[in-house]
Amino acid sequence: MQGFSKTGTTGLPEVLVLEILSKLPVKSLTRFRCVCKPWSCSFQAPLFITKHQHNNLNLLFKGFHGNTRDGIHYFYQLSTEKGQNFSVKHKFHFPFFEKGWSGLAVDGLCNGILCLHGADKVALWNPSTREFKILPQSSVQRPPSLHFTSLDGLGFGYDSQTNDYKVVRFVTNYFEEDSDAGLWFDPIHQVELYSLTSDSWKEMSVHEVCADGSPLFNNYVNGFYYWRAYWVPDTLILSFDMVNEKFSTLPLPQFDWGEDFYKELLDFNGLLAAIFYPREGTEKSFDLWVMNG
């Protein structure tokens, strides 16, 4: 796409047309997808999506009706206009998150798409277009004599080379123990990768390491998803390259305030950052470390 070419529809430079379109609400863009094929393709490009999100910031608040296990989950879009208190603009109900989706969690955000999971189910949801997809059950073989499994950390991101969205999840397999007979079994860990293009899961090879899910959930930065890793000699940062499908590690920033502080990873202006803040008390300060380069 040449930045200063003129479109046949408006006669304006294409870069100017896309700049104007990026400021419009999603409902307008949905209608304008039918104007011409170049516009439709541009609306799906990651660069346009990023610009549109920057020009149309939305604040979502997750809530539920009923108890935390069986309640009906909602997202609320809050008004963020300057000089006004927060107010609910829209209320999104999940018809696909009824009972059986206990402990609904947000695991990632990429190009306006949220990755959600509850129990052993995973879904992708675009709150702007209301489109959603429940991911298929994994076909990865489980160990025999399995008692139950748990998901310890999910990651969601975009493969720019193949135009594919991918989900990584860490699965812990537990076995039934017999304390009377003195039978104790260590859990077995597996890592799975889902591809939206193939609509299937596959098993990945990784060293004995577990990923800790972050409540901030915006750990996807420039093609990599990041977790805090544990069950290793040191607490590290574990990263996954969405293009090459490779894991790697790097050290956490040195911080000597012990276990009295939360340590979370996040995307800070397009860079990986680590934030440290107190678990208890009224102190409102925090430390933010940003990785350059």
Q: What does this protein look like?
A:
With 293 residues, this protein is mainly beta. It has 3 domains: 1-56, no CATH class; 57-135; 136-293, no CATH class. Helices cover 11% and strands 42% of the residues. It has helices at 14-21, 26-32, 37-43, 46-55; strands spanning 59-65, 72-78, 88-93, 105-110, 113-118, 121-126, 131-134, 148-159, 164-174, 188-195, 200-204, 210-212, 220-221, 224-230, 236-241, 246-251, 261-268, 271-278, 287-290. The model is unreliable at 1-7 (pLDDT under 50).
List the keywords:
293 residues; mainly beta; 3 domains; five-stranded antiparallel beta sheet; four-stranded antiparallel beta sheet; 4 helices; 19 strands; 11% helix; 42% strand; globular; disordered N terminus; F-box domain-containing protein; F-box_dom; SCF_F-box_component; F-box-like_dom_sf
Please write the string of helix (H) and strand (E) elements: HHHHEEEEEEEEEEEEEEEEEEE
List how many beta strands DSSP finds: 19
Mean pLDDT: 74
Structural class: mainly beta
Please, how many helices?
A: 4
Indicate the overall shape.
Answer: globular
**In total, how many domains does the architecture comprise?**
3
Measured distance between first and last alpha carbons: 28 Å
**Rg for CA atoms:** 22 Å
Helical coverage, percent range: 10-25%
Low-confidence stretches: 1-7
Q: Beta-strand level of the residues, as a percent range? A: 35-45%
**Major sheet attributes:** 5 strands, antiparallel
